[in-house]
């Protein structure tokens, strides 16, 4: 084992090689926006209404189209059925019109099995068979909606759980989930995917039925081969090694998608990379290392799940997408061949520095260059700010928003 004198740092400066690597990475990177990220939201203590917030599905499509126009990276919009399509299947015609009008496709279909009064003690895990049926029926409707819209992903998040020890039979509820998910899986069309999202707490504070990736993994396996795990970056305990979870899911070909956001304490839904950009970089690195090793693409739906209570919603989304691109591009700069060698030799400092060298690169000039060559605005935020769109919707929507009470919808 020879002595290593060369750290990886400084190997990249903005040169042709960097431009090429970054360009290739960005060409392959798309990220889906959540319709609910444009709506009025708040905390459990109150809601701060924004004059420009979207309150209709048309406005959500319109706002998302602005983000896509500025970044060229977000061709699909995730829909939350109860908030965006209150009449279920009947609303498909309307959504198809909006897809055409705003040149944006409907993305993942998100059932709502947490808001109705019936779901106080759970949905698919509820001890009442009538309520379990109601929840399953709603998710089956979502499968049909996804089929009608040509959406590949159905992404239910289950708020199911309990608040006090001894009040629910946890094992029985596992059985209800297995049974319900098998039935839902059986209704999937070829090519469709059921993404199971886990979350350790909130709204339930004692036990959550799908609390972590292991539970989601086992339930997905039980449901069938078209079921995968969805990792929401905000749904972990402090100090959890999220990239290791991603590595396990990649290893088992069980990662279906991400809900990206950042957090400091709980499920804070802050903008991606605002608190810990290195965390997101490490996740992207695990994925790209896997892709380099296997010479294949990991089939992952990258999605944003954020609610912007204080920041302007469209600007927060543009900031998020740009941050995601920068971190993804930085992860693409890792010298995988060299890293593999160093890992094999257990050359700790050099291996770590190889990773850090990529993380510390300023890819922004290369990202700007990529935008220019793709006919996109070099500075998406500036392009949006000078478009006059925000002023217009602030005028047009202000009145309606003053009386807004509902969250997300
Ligand atoms: C949950 C979870 C779901 C999202 C709802 C609004 O915490 O992240 O994905 O649909 O919030
Ligand atoms: Mn989520
Ligand atoms: Mn969440």
Textual characterization of the structure:
The protein is 47% helix and 11% strand. The chain is an alpha/beta fold and 409 residues long. The strands form 4 sheets. It has a 5-stranded parallel beta sheet. The protein has a 3-stranded parallel beta sheet with strand order 1-4-5. α1 (16-27) packs across α13, α2 runs parallel beside α4 and α11 runs antiparallel to α12. The longest helix has 21 residues, at 129-149. Residues 1-7 have low confidence and may be disordered. Bound molecules: beta-L-rhamnopyranose and manganese (II) ion (MN) (2 copies). The site of beta-L-rhamnopyranose has 8 residues, from loops. One manganese (II) ion binds at residues 157, 197, 232, 259, 305.
A few lines on this structure:
This protein is α/β, with parallel strands linked by helices and 409 residues long. It has helices at residues 16-27, 57-71, 81-84, 92-102, 129-149, 170-186, 213-223, 242-251, 277-294, 313-332, 336-345, 348-359, 364-373, 380-387, 389-402; strands at 33-34, 42-43, 46-47, 76-80, 105-110, 153-154, 161-162, 193-197, 207-208, 227-232, 255-260, 301-304.
């Amino acid at each position: 084992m020879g002595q290593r004198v060369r750290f990886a740092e400084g190997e990249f400066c903005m040169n042709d090689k960097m431009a090429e690597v970054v360009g290739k990475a960005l060409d392959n990177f798309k990220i889906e926006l959540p319709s609910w990220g444009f709506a009025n939201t708040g905390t459990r203590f109150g809601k701060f209404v924004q004059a420009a917030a979207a309150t209709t599905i048309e406005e959500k499509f319109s706002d998302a189209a602005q983000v896509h126009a500025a970044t060229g990276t977000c061709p699909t919009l995730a829909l939350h059925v109860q908030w965006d399509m209150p009449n279920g299947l009947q609303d498909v015609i309307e959504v198809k019109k909006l897809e055409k009008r705003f040149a944006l496709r409907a993305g993942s279909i998100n059932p709502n099995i947490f808001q109705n009064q019936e779901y106080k003690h759970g949905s698919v895990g509820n001890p009442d068979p009538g309520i379990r049926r109601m929840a399953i029926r709603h998710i089956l409707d979502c499968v049909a909606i996804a089929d009608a819209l040509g959406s590949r992903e159905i992404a239910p998040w289950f708020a199911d759980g309990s608040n006090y020890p001894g009040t629910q039979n946890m094992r029985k509820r596992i059985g209800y989930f297995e049974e319900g998910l098998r039935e839902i899986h059986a209704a999937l069309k070829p090519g469709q995917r059921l993404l199971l999202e886990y979350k350790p707490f909130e709204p339930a504070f004692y036990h959550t039925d799908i609390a972590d990736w292991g539970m989601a993994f086992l339930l997905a396996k039980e449901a069938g081969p078209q079921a995968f795990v969805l990792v929401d970056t905000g749904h972990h305990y402090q100090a959890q090694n999220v990239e290791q979870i991603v590595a396990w899911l990649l290893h088992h070909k069980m990662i279906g998608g991400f809900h990206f956001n950042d957090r400091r304490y709980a499920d804070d839904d802050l903008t991606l990379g605002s608190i810990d950009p290195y965390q997101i970089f490490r996740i992207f690195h695990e994925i790209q290392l896997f892709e380099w090793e296997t010479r294949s693409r990991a089939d992952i739906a990258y999605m944003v799940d954020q609610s912007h209570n204080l920041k302007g919603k469209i600007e927060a989304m543009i900031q998020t997408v740009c941050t995601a691109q920068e971190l993804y591009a930085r992860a693409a700069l890792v010298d995988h061949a060299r890293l593999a060698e160093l890992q094999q030799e257990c050359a700790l400092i050099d291996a770590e520095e190889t990773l850090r060298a990529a993380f510390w690169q300023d890819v922004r000039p290369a990202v700007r260059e990529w935008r220019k060559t793709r006919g996109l605005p070099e500075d998406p935020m500036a392009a949006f700010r000078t478009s006059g769109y925000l002023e217009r919707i602030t005028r047009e929507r202000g009145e309606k928003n003053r009386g807004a009470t509902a969250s997300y919808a």
